[in-house]
Amino acid sequence: MTRALAWLHTRNARQAALVACFLTPSLLIFLLYRVLPLAWNVVLSFQAWSPLHPPVWIGWDNYDEMLHDDDVVWQALYNTLIFMASQGIGVVIALGIALLVNSDLKGASVYRTIVFLSYPLMTVAVAIIWRWMYNERGGLIDFVLRRLGVIDKPVAFLDSFGWALPSTIVANTWQVLGFFMIVLLTGLQSIPPHLYEAARVDGAPGWARLLRITLPMLRPSLFLCAVIGILNSFAAFDLVYVMTNGGPGHATELLITYIYKEAFNQSRFDYAAALTVAQFALLLFLAWLAHRAAGGNAGALE
Amino acid sequence: MTRRARILLALRHALLVAIAIAMLTPFYWVLKTALTGENIYAYPPSLLPVNPHFYNFVDVWYLIPFPRYLLNSVVVSLLAVAGNLVLNSIAAYALTLPFRGRRAVLLLLLSCTLVPFQATIIPAYLITARLGLLNSYLGLALPLMSTIVCIFIFKAAFEAVPKSLIDAARIDGLNDLRILLRVLLPLSTPAIATNVVLAFIWSWNNFLWPLIITRDPNMQTLPLGLARFLSYMEDTTGALYAFVCMVLAPGLLVFLMAQASFMRGLTAGATKG
Amino acid sequence: MTLRRVLASRFFIVPAAIAAVTIGWNIYVSLHAHGLLSGRVIDAAGRPLANATVVLYTHDFVTQAEKERTKTDASGAFAFTDNDSHLIQLQALDGDRMSARVTIRLWFRAQDRELAAPLVIGAAG
Fold first, then answer.
1. How far apart are CA B42 and CA B50, in angstroms?
2. Of the candidates B95, B143, B223, which has its C-beta nearest A122's C-beta?
């Protein structure tokens, strides 16, 4: 006992106390808003929740309903996967822009800023901007298409079952392009130039240099872009909610908008929690897939 | 420069200019709509604002509680930035010290990066309700006060300070808090700037969290006010686009002033989770 | 960081400029916001109309409401003194003839404004 008391007076003890003090507020917030919610989601998903009386344990019923009785969740899943696949297009475009803007091109920083400008902006505002762009009367897109003769009657993009999701994807790509570009630019700039020199000396043509040197060296950056793309499609609530609110019908319903509606419009916290658990499991699985595809080197998070 | 190289360069610039125009066009279109004096639903829409005027902005200022929304957004963002600076700097400092369980804590934090905020909304709502913080500034700012990215930014900056300085300070008898305040933070101003900008922008743009926990229209923040205005006044007035311009202006301003900090923070492995 | 560097940095200049403009604008507004609206009413031939009624409507996005009426004096001039809106319409009436509704948009509420063009009561309303 006296040894413990003696230890309390040592410097180590003081430092341990200090570390605890300093870490606690942050850890508390993570516990409250990250760890605990994950666990609570799982618990909630096995219960029947109601605001009026304490939750009741019901086992797998919520998951049963999700798999067998719910049509919307499959549509939402399908939409989310399409959304995710389309992020790949954004990455390719961003790679193209990054390659163009790389090196000491005059005005490169201006181009970079212009492309990146949309990323730090409020997604709600971006959604409204694009809603207006797609408007049948006042929007630029219908106007240009009609002027070019591609269509002869205005197309209500955001109201059509076929075009609504691609339209939101275009808006999302516009916003996220800058971020992908910055990540890829950072990756490009860390490729040692002597690799290119050696290849040029060996007589390799430009596109071969691209395939054999640039892309493999960009793997960590591409992995980061893939992870961001996956996270983005699970998190793109603001854009879809304001642009189409999941409509028409459920044509643009993403998993996250469906979860929000079930939880806060229908007050079905238990079912929404089950959906969240399923969505999170899917997210982890996809992130693991990306990790494997990146050669197991998730490294370079810097 | 060879002729071929010159042509390629010109092509490169042309392509980049086309891309820049494509990226800027949506902004221009909304700005034109906010300024134009004609009926915005007339087809064909004119490419330049007709009889431009600023009266839509006046309408937004008076007929929408824009000042109130602005105030709410500013207060919440200031809270989030302050919380971020204080909480994350002390946590990062603690993580630079050797202690038992350090690796476990680091692992915990790293694994939390994969948890997006959207996966936690339901319990986060219930927790905030239990804490009695629904519909309050603190409740709005609390989840944003500590983020993993910001902790790691601080940690990297603190670890870049030469150990000799820290040791010298310790010999001078400064306790840990003083070391943090007097030695580490002044030498980490880029990290502070980055964290301030990141925390501000994440809090300013945050939509889902205020949507969930505000009940009172007086506590709504700007994104929420914007979405509400859209749903009430949908497609009946051009003032909406003036509202959008006014909402984007502060964000644009902060970004343009602090570009370098922001990009630095993003490439430090930032995933907003 | 020296004082000079702080003052010259854009993080000081930009907010300071914004604060200066805001203060300057508020001063201007408080000096010019008495709610005075004045104008003239004339008939189709250009002669000033005395004793015509002028109606003031205030607007917001969806509604409009009549706020006040006043009459023109002998020289066809009228004035409202307590306008507190920024989006208003004026219409002049004389018997059963009316002028067109004129929309006036102000820069701030209760801005003092003297109408440049008179309200014209023509033959047809």
1. 12
2. B223
Instruction: State the Cα–Cα distance between residues A61 and A48, nearest whole angstrom.
Output: 9
Q: What is the ipTM of this complex?
A: 0.91
For the domain made up of A64-293, the CATH class stated in words is mainly alpha
Amino acid, res. A16: A
**Maximum Cα–Cα distance across chain B:** 76
How many angstroms separate the CA atoms of B79 and B200, rounded? 9
Cα separation of C58 and C51, whole Å?
Answer: 22
Residue matched to tokens 């509202």: B243
Whether residue B271 is predicted with pLDDT greater than 50 in this model: the reply is: no
Yes or no, beta carbons of C60 and B53 under 8 Å apart? no
**Cα of A223 vs its chain's centroid, Å:** 13
Contact by Cβ (8 Å): A141, A170: no
**How far is C67 from C69, CA to CA, in rounded Å?**
7
* Closest residue by Cα to residue A38 from A228, A243, A284, A267: A284
Which residues lie below 8 Å from residue B155, measured CB to CB, with a gap of 6+? B92, B95, B96
Euclidean distance between CA atoms B134 and B213, whole angstroms = 5
| Angle in degrees, CA A238, A243, A247, rounded to 5 | 105
- DSSP conformation class of C42: E
Is residue B273 very low, low, confident or very high in pLDDT (cuts 50, 70, 90)? very low
Containing A23, the helix (H) or strand (E) segment is helix A11-30
pLDDT tens per residue, range B125-169: 999 999 999 999 999 999 999 888 899 999 999 988 888 888 888
Is B63 within 8 Å of C14 when comparing Cβ atoms? no
Q: Looking at chain B, which residue has its C-alpha nearest residue A101?
A: B16
CATH numbers and ranges of domains, chain B: 39-267 (1.10.3720.10)
Which residues are bridge partners to C102 per DSSP? C90
Q: Extract the tokens encoding B143.
A: 């989840």
